[in-house]
Amino acid sequence: MASAEEWPARFEGHGGPVKSVAISSDGRSVLSASFDYAAILWSIEGGEAKIVHRLIGHEAAVNDAHFANGTFAVSVSDDGSIALWDLETGEMASRIDEGGDKMLSVAVNEDGSRALAASWDRNAYLYAIEEGKLTRLAKLGGHRGNVNSVDFLPDGTGILTASYDGGIRLFDATSGELEREIYAHGWGVNVIKAMPDGKTVLFGATDGAVGLVSIETGEEVKVLPPHERPVLSLALSTDGTKAASGGGDGKIRFMSTLDWALEEEFENPYGPVWGMAITPDNTTVLYAGLDDHVNAWQVSPRKPFEPIDNDFPRRFQVSDTDDPGELQFARKCSVCHTLKPDDANRAGPTLYKLFGRKAGSLPGYPYSDALKRADFTWTEETVSNLFDHGPDVVTPGSKMPIQRLKDHKTRDALVAFLKRATDPAAQSEEDVTKQKEGEK
Ligand code: HEC
Fold first, then answer.
1. Buried b (16+ CB within 10 A) or exposed e, 97-114
2. Distance (Å, whole) CA 189 – CA 196
3. How far apart are CA 253 and CA 234, in angstroms?
4. Which of 44, 188, 330, 395 has its CA 20 to 30 A from that of 435?
5. In the CATH hierarchy, which fold is given to the domain comprising 4-298?
6. Is ligand 1 within 6 A of the CB of residue 379?
7. DSSP states of 158-203
8. Residue among 337, 357, 368, 387 whose CB has most ligand 1 atoms within 8 A, to mutate
């Protein structure tokens, strides 16, 4: 197991914000899930995070991923599916698509034989993981809002769900039947973790509340320090003695579960904390958010925070340009596309040399079948058409999110900008200008 000094400060390799992070029980591997449509399996060796496999196959942002046992992992995505990955090969072994609404989180039981997914279709789903395959066992209904979070009771007999309707519910893990709503919060519940005592559940809500609820009585037995923005993540240590809450306010609170004393607090300078995991030695919290990488915060012995970058994350760099097309690109496209030959692992293919390219033809990029089959070339007209009618109409089945730019002036400005910025000749000119400026 890696010790405090051996946890890498950063895990770099994603091409978009990171939504979740998980650590294997032996502390040697890490899984991260990203907006870039991929998950990554990392190995930790000698203070470095190495990419073992990029898990590619989801058709939208990957919201959560967990180890299922030594050799498998499960992940859920905005594409409405749960996938099982063979971690030896990095291949998708099995996948179940529940039909559209996004799945936000996933949990795995103690022995890795069951998985649970939380869906925005107002249901949770229970699956068996057997012989490298996923099989759906039950659909857990009865919620009046999106299901945001799910967990197994430690003995495996019960399932807890948390919903935007404010309810935390208990289901029978064998039959999938609803037993009861154990707690009703006035606001949506975003995250839950069943405590190892089997008697309580930790929750975090959209109003910033963090608390501990008794499963038997439904009473809130402990009110914990609230966040100023919605609570987005919770983590429990492997031995159950530490817990952490992370919020939209960028704060991470590290607590002892023995007396619920606040041990340390940290503020992530780069925005919300979407995902967290406590290392098995209880020294470090790995956390994820708007950055394209996972960061480590050493809690014990506490390291003073040193700003990681002078650069603000790329997506905040609102261009100081007056070109409306460039502005559109920065706001609506740059999180998934580059304009340079390197796609930087973003969710979409690079748009470098786009004009004149046959749709779906860039070598090495995993296009959807819809784009591979498309039989046209990108021109000013076809790009404009794509955003006039939307990718769902022009290339039905595409992995590109539904978006339209109905205003033809904005669309023309975007196309004109793309025409210039994706042209290799224009780019070398730009480089020359930059070089000259550098010489000044
Ligand atoms: C959330 C991520 C995301 C955003 C935002 C996004 N795209 Fe895409 N884009 C993709 C993905 C993924 C594909 C590949 C689609 C497929 O294979 O079905 C794609 C494909 C494309 C293609 C086809 C490229 C080819 O090689 O055939 C073009 C053109 C494109 N995007 C332009 C844009 C523009 C312009 C914007 C902004 C207005 C934009 N995209 C915003 C993810 C995104």
1. ebeeebbbbbbbbeebeb
2. 20
3. 10
4. 330
5. Methylamine Dehydrogenase; Chain H (2.130.10)
6. no
7. EEEEEETTSEEEEEETTT--EEEEEEE-SS-EEEEEE-TTSSEEEE
8. 337
The two tokens of residue 168 are 């935390």
What are the pLDDT digits (tens) for 335-375?
899 999 999 999 999 999 999 999 999 999 999 999 999 99
Task: Please give the distance, rounded to the nearest whole angstrom, from the Cα atom of residue 403 to the centre of ligand 1.
Answer: 10
Dig out the tokens for 82 from the structure: 């749960």
Distance (angstroms) between ligand 1 centre and the Cα of 401 equals 8
CATH superfamily of domain region 318-439: Cytochrome c-like domain (1.10.760.10)
**Chain segment 227-262, per-residue pLDDT in tens:** 999 999 999 999 999 999 999 999 999 999 999 999
Residues contacting 232, CB < 8 A, separation 6+: 190, 191, 204, 246, 247, 248, 272, 273, 274
Residue identified by tokens 């109905």 is: 406
79 close to 38: Cβ distance less than 8 angstroms: no
Q: Whose CA is nearest to atom 13 of ligand 1?
A: 348
Atom of ligand 1 nearest to the CA of 333: 37
For the chain, give every domain's residue range. Answer: 4-298, 318-439
* Residue 255 identity (one-letter amino acid): M
